[in-house]
Amino acid sequence: MKAAVAKALFNSHSYSEYRKLVSELLLEGKSTGNEQSEDLLHYSELNETRLHRLDKTMKITEENVAKLHSLKKEYIWLVLAEGWCGDAAQLLPVFNKMALESNKNIDLRIVLRDENEELMNHFLTNKAKAIPKLIVINKKTGGVVGDWGPRPKGAVELIQNYKKEHGVVDETAKADLQLWYLHDKGVSTQNEILDIMLSLEQ
Length: 202
Description:
Layout: H1 2-10, H2 15-27, H3 38-57, H4 62-69, E1 75-81, H5 86-100, E2 106-112, H6 117-120, E3 133-138, E4 144-148, H7 153-166, H8 171-184, H9 187-201
Parallel strand pairs: 1-2
Antiparallel strand pairs: 1-3, 3-4
Helix pairs in contact: 2-3, 3-5, 7-8
């Protein structure tokens, strides 16, 4: 795994570099990833709008700002994502703002899933390459010390319940999920990730 992590970090992007990459591809009529389709392009365009909005409106709660300020060790957050992924569009702005509030104790780096298959295969969710996946690395040792994703628990339950009832995850389920994110305002994600980070500090 160490080799896969090192390779991913070498090819990783800062948040602003990732945003620029996705935007430039959209101007060419492309999405990120190995597969290109009308649907993926459409999702990428929707996500671009989401990212713009969340970059402006997403806030870290005061309580969580205090927790981020309390971190003593230094970490890298290596995130597997793609521009067409709706969950990534909802969560990357949260990760970014948390990193910005961490007094430089968290360095956020983003890589594309399809370009880092070996790394992705170490962090499957129910055997699926679900993203975004946040991998927590101790900056000093370079070792992986935790991971989170692809969704906060409430969002996972929403999709599981929908699938149980309807047998599929369709456009209605995706719309319900986006509404869930809208109402949650990134708070569940902040809380769950900070539980992991504070346990690493002990």
